[in-house]
Amino acid sequence: MKKIEAIIKPFKLDEVKESLNDIGVQGMTVSEVKGFGRQKGHTELYRGAEYVVDFLPKIKLEIIVPDDLVAQVVEVVEKSARTGRIGDGKIFVTNVEEVVRIRTGERGHDAI
Amino acid sequence: MKKIEAIIKPFKLDEVKESLNDIGVQGMTVSEVKGFGRQKGHTELYRGAEYVVDFLPKIKLEIIVPDDLVAQVVEVVEKSARTGRIGDGKIFVTNVEEVVRIRTGERGHDAI
Amino acid sequence: MKKIEAIIKPFKLDEVKESLNDIGVQGMTVSEVKGFGRQKGHTELYRGAEYVVDFLPKIKLEIIVPDDLVAQVVEVVEKSARTGRIGDGKIFVTNVEEVVRIRTGERGHDAI
Amino acid sequence: DHGSGAIVRRATASLLGLAVGDALGATTEFMKPEDIRRQYGVHERIRGGGWLNLPPGRVTDDTEMSQCVARAILAKGGWDLAAVAEEFARWLRGNPVDVGSTCRRGIRDYILKRQLSTPPNEWDAGNGAAMRVAPVALFALGDEELLARLAVEQARLTHNHPLSDASCVTVARMVHRGILGTPMAGLRAAAEELAGRHPEFRFERYEGNATAYVADTLRTVFHDFFSTRTFEECLVRIVNRGGDADTAGAIAGAVAGAHYGLEAIPRRWLVALDPAVRKELTEAAKKLVRLSPLFRGA
Ligand SMILES: Nc1ncnc2c1ncn2[C@@H]1O[C@H](COP(=O)(O)OP(=O)(O)O)[C@@H](O)[C@H]1O
Ligand SMILES: Nc1ncnc2c1ncn2[C@@H]1O[C@H](COP(=O)(O)OP(=O)(O)O)[C@@H](O)[C@H]1O
Ligand SMILES: Nc1ncnc2c1ncn2[C@@H]1O[C@H](COP(=O)(O)OP(=O)(O)O)[C@@H](O)[C@H]1O
Ligand SMILES: [Mg+2]
Ligand SMILES: [Mg+2]
Fold it and tell me: Which pLDDT does position D298 carry in this prediction?
């Protein structure tokens, strides 16, 4: 099994969730993170002076999938998260050795 | 060494921490995440209209342990996090190639 | 490619970012987490009563790097995040099987 | 006019043209032509802004990396690839306003591995190496072989791809011939020789792709340079295409500057340029040319 982690632009979350839903992937864990990279942060006014806030809010998705779904899920996330402009984000694939569904104790593929 | 990642119901955090404490595991990193899965989100009232908020707040635990403790730690988390109702969560085990204790520079097992 | 995950003291973030900047590393994802370990939480006053808050706010950095740069990046994070006092944090290195730059579809080393 | 004075003026025009094209194009970088039309009508004024939110006259990595190449040559009084790499590293550490991902990777690998030549990579056909090659043409004046060698050497610090290599040599050649006062036909010959070897660069019919893929960038530059009659006309056309407008503008500015000369660069653009950049490039042009084989009588 693999973990697919995607850092995406926050406004893209719904579109990515729907596209994943369309291919039958529903389970995921989402967190709010800050991204640093080539995309410029925004300027904020504080006590009359302008500051560049150098990070950008991003959304991190974590989706555990069976190996044979990885390529498809990566592609779906890629397409639905893309705007073509700097800061679209990244997808990382890592190996998962064991998964457990806490409610039932199921392991492996039955757990996802 | 392995990383044990657990997505659990927030109110279960204290119980899981104590059960882990009981087997001598104290170090962990915790974050607030949103879960999407079979468990349905709740309805919220906003400007007079009802909205289904389709995610649920969850807590993510990250615990690095030596290989020989994995099975035991997974079992402890599983039991203490379980309610038997949908949405109890998941546990993922991934391999960790190197760990460093920043304070001392210790590496490997001495770092956990 | 590897993922370097570092749990550090929040006030160390800028110093770590600058040290990474000095070696040409800019891209990273950051999240706010809670740490439990040997470092004791602080006491808080709430409705007249004192509570021991047993966790401590930490910052988690995630940096994907090519294999041949891991040792150096780990060392830079280690040095810049260290205060020498309990709670400095930890660095974990895990293997990443695939990376995708969403904007361009670039994969592997060209994606980082 | 082929006197040494005229040569220095055209060399200066090349570097200033690069900076002007960069600053002008930075406003419309990543934009589509229709959006540029809607927002600016015809963009023909140095106004800053753009995705980098720049003050007017501010240049970007295209000019700054060119400045690095010039500084290295002048500091060493000659060619020293490690010195160029060192300048890139110093620049990167100073939080530049933008850095291309391929350039960043190459400079990072120099900092951490002392790498002076990046391995071949199918994804390295970006324009990041060609955008900074003009100073090489000034330093190698009179020796097209030296020019070709150094153009590729500096490219390989970050980019290693046949199309990037060929682009660097061709851009440097066109700047070189422009500075020497070669008629337009000589510059066109260089572009056609490249298109002959690599059909990706055919530029007669322009299909409107102004991306950072070096073939797209140079097709845009060649098409607009050869189909216009003045420096201003060339640059205005190119930056209104959007896409990688600052880099297309910078390369076109370097070539058109070399060909049309200093007087052809609209004064309003020169005075809008960051004064420190304008001063440094003017000085550098003079000194680079004096170090060249042509001026040393080599
Ligand atoms: N090396 C990295 N490791 C971890 N996260 C990264 C890395 N590089 C970029 N990111 C994440 O990806 C986001 C987008 O990166 P950025 O460089 O701004 O744009 P792009 O990917 O379009 O080139 C960043 O905000 C950050 O969250
Ligand atoms: N494929 C998955 N990848 C990552 N996280 C998941 C996945 N499936 C479920 N989760 C996480 O586990 C939580 C519980 O899952 P859910 O399907 O609601 O109940 P159960 O695990 O009891 O069947 C979700 O809220 C989500 O945080
Ligand atoms: N086994 C572990 N798994 C995951 N995170 C840990 C683990 N042990 C410690 N941490 C993280 O590292 C931080 C520092 O650990 P702590 O034990 O307080 O100090 P030190 O690392 O200096 O011995 C903790 O707050 C926690 O976030
Ligand atoms: Mg630029
Ligand atoms: Mg550009």
Answer: 57
